[in-house]
Design a protein that fits this description.
CATH class: Alpha Beta
Order of helices and strands: EEEHEHHEHEHHEEEEHEHEHEHH
Shape: globular
Number of domains: 1
CATH architecture: Alpha-Beta Barrel
Radius of gyration: 17 Å
Distance between the termini: 15 Å
Number of helices: 11
Structural class: alpha/beta
Strand content: 25-35%
Oligomer: single chain
């Protein structure tokens, strides 16, 4: 079995003075200041993270470009694979983000608006560089294509854009399979319903995507501790577990999570 990856993530926005800052929230809302992105990147690089994710959380909603100067500073501090997302809409955006030091780009809104971007990026830079991010939200109605049982009710998962602010009517499972067919090298599955709750990953969502594709899946949103990571690996089949709050606020260390997984028989990197 391939080793499972533990990935810390920072959500970056501009503060009132226009400087980059890390924020943490719940359900993509009620954001609170958490720290400096470059300093946090350096700490996670030293803490044993397998990869690192930098998300510019308002670039798409504000219609601006990704803060590439900050990406360059972060890239100087991390010597593990770096994924950068936010505001990437064109082939040139992908190129410039990779040139700034990213190893992979995470694309959500830009790909949903123009799915050809996935193919263009994969052909130009390789599938391994193209991560399709999905901000999924539960819907308990009859408008979806694929359904799961959640708390005794049947629901489907809708792709949202602009940081979860707008629904698209697109079924997550349908989109995941299309993204894979277009050349996505990885799928980054965020749950708006679980985000920041620390009540566990959205297992029905993650399992639905993992069962539908062969592309590696990063589970995101809701991690409250090592056992949640264990469950998303064993119950949902995720290839990587992303977490933010439990690491940002020193509730658990990356080392503690990996030790727990190793003790439970899940293969992880040292």
């Amino acid at each position: 079995m391939l080793t499972k990856r533990i990935i810390p993530c920072i959500d970056v926005d501009l503060d009132e003075d226009g400087n980059a800052a890390v924020y943490t929230g719940v359900n993509f809302e009620n954001l609170r200041y958490t720290g400096d992105p470059v300093e946090m990147a350096k700490l996670y690089n030293e803490a044993g993270a397998d990869e690192f994710v930098f998300l510019d959380i308002t670039a798409s909603a504000d219609g601006r470009e990704t803060m590439l100067g900050v990406v360059e500073d972060v890239a100087d501090e991390v010597f593990i694979p770096l994924t950068v997302g936010g505001g990437i809409r064109t082939r040139d955006d992908i190129k410039e983000t990779l040139r700034a030091g990213a190893d992979k780009v995470s694309i959500n809104t830009g790909a949903l608006e123009r799915p050809e971007l996935i193919t263009e990026g994969a052909e130009a830079f390789g599938s391994q560089c193209i991560v399709i991010s999905v901000d999924a939200k539960r819907r308990f109605d009859g408008q979806g294509e694929h359904y799961a049982q959640v708390d005794g009710e049947s629901c489907w998962f809708e792709c949202t854009v602009k940081g979860g602010r707008e629904g698209t009517g697109v079924d997550v499972i349908e989109w995941a399979t299309e993204a894979e067919s277009r050349g996505a090298g990885e799928l980054f599955v965020n749950s708006i319903d679980a985000d920041g709750t620390e009540e566990g990953y959205d297992i029905p969502l993650t399992k639905g995507v993992c069962d539908a594709v062969s592309t590696p899946v990063i589970a995101s949103s809701g991690c409250g501790g090592p056992e949640d990571a264990y469950e998303v690996f064993t119950d949902a089949g995720a290839d990587a577990a992303l977490a933010a709050s439990i690491f940002h606020f020193d509730e658990y260390s990356i080392r503690e999570v990996k030790e727990h997984l190793d003790e439970r028989g899940v293969p992880v990197r040292p």
